[in-house]
Amino acid sequence: AALAEMLAQVPAEAPLTGVVHTAGVLDDGVIESLTPERFDTVLRPKLDAAWHLHELTQNLDLSTFVLFSSAAGTFGAPGQGNYATANTFLDALAQHRKALGLPAVSLAWGLWADASGMTGALADGKIERVNRNGVEGLSSAEALELLDTAQTMDDAVLYPVRLNLPASAKVDASAVPALLRGLVRATGRKLAQGGGAPADGAALRRRLHGLTDAQQDAVLVELVREHAAAVLGHGSAETLPEEAGFPELGLDSLTAVELRNRLNAATGLRLQATVIFDYPAPAALAAHLRGELAEAAASGAGEPDRDGQGSGAHAPAGDPSGSQTIESLFRNACLDGKYLEGVEFLMSASRLRPAFEQLADMEKVPNPVRLARGPKGPRLICFTAPVAVSGAQQYARFAANYRDIQDVYVVPTPGFGRGERVPAFAEATIRVQAEIVKECAEGEPFVLLGHSSGGWLAHAAATHLESTGIRPEGIVLLDTYAPGNKIVDRFHSTFMDGMLQREQAVGRIDEVRLTAMGAYFRVFSEWTPRETAIPTLFLRASESLSAAREEAVREESADPVADWQPSWELDHIAVDVAGNHWSMMEEHASSAAEAVRDWLSGLA
After folding, report:
1. Alpha-carbon distance 217 to 223, whole Å?
2. Which segments of 496-547 are extended strands (E)?
């Protein structure tokens, strides 16, 4: 209706003669994480808008109808299933219009060299990966010349893409788009042959048989480095820096899943999606693989299933056998809309978990993960949110904006790994994580940062350290709702649904993760942030998770200024950034990182 109204305003003396549709939105993720809402976000500006333009202008005397599509729809692009779908529709629409005798051309663009509203959000590592796979950026002048040239051609779909096939021949052949493999003679070593690295789990087990632990570790380090080199586009493992961890080399949450899948295929294991962040160095990951292989051999475990998570990794919430577990009871509570009751149940169940009161009580202390390395200060030390999808991966896109600039660490939250204890009370985890922070800081200036409920831990650790005479340079809270915030109760279903939708990013949300979440919600239920003199930045998401629930909150509130955004009662500087509670650390992470950088420069 809005478009029809706009077209009606075009004056008769200057009629509409051309349409150029350029709109697009990204919401990238592995295929299992693409919810209907994430498809709607990407399809609406392309599919819906282009179809409206077609319907409302097909009776006009147009000379030009140009659709800006993407080569992702034809060549494929990791993590862009929804975006590929949207652009394939534009290509089909151009074919449809041509069949009707109407003007149309869909331009399936490759990368433009100049950053745009969409590509400006891409980390350097992603652009480098595109380049390594044989696609180079077009300058704006070249792209506009191709746009003009397209108007002189009869084809419905054209591909203005700058290909560099020799570059794509240097990477693993599986990284080359399928349609181009007949044009490329791959010269890189194949993993099945390079250095004797095995191609499947059975071959690997035969090779490891009879070797000492140290010899097995050497073989597995070689395997890990070969696959990491392939995912990162290096010609061989020898080009990978020895001292750097995977996240520092450019691996993000998407490519980490790709590396995990490769290792699953090579080992026959069922590794969690977060394994690359849990063991971010080749030696640590190799040692973990050795232990998992030994355990699998002892238990006679089978091969992983299609999603790489193992049989039943994403089984339905209900158990047809009638057995009731903590996990199934919680999932069924969410399905029935009993979100608060489900969380209360987890809080009670968490009391049965072994607990720690001090560092000495912990048999297993999670190690901090370095996501970025750089010469500038202060160090950014991040806290994972104590929720079931907790993990260092939640900061992967954020930290990518600091690579080669400054150090970014993530302090894991104890209790979410098997064999780990949960805190007996809030002060217990505050003291333990403060000790981990001191190790990360190594006496250098640092800032503590936390997204969502991770902000509780960041603020609590900061004020604890301040009381001991160690003062952080600052605290950064990203869309943190204080415990007991009434808005959280109204939005509980939205938060829990968003958490469960992100299950694919961490692997199955099991009873360990659920009861750990319950433990933290329980021990922090009475926690109140301490007053502090530490400068505090409070970043708020500018978009609501649900427009309908946002309106409901406004209608229920007697306070005309109350809304869905979080608030922080202590002294702070508030800045709104792009995205909602989840997406501000995903596709809009660069906006959050820029806001933090600007604030840090002001502190300096």
Report:
1. 10
2. 536-541
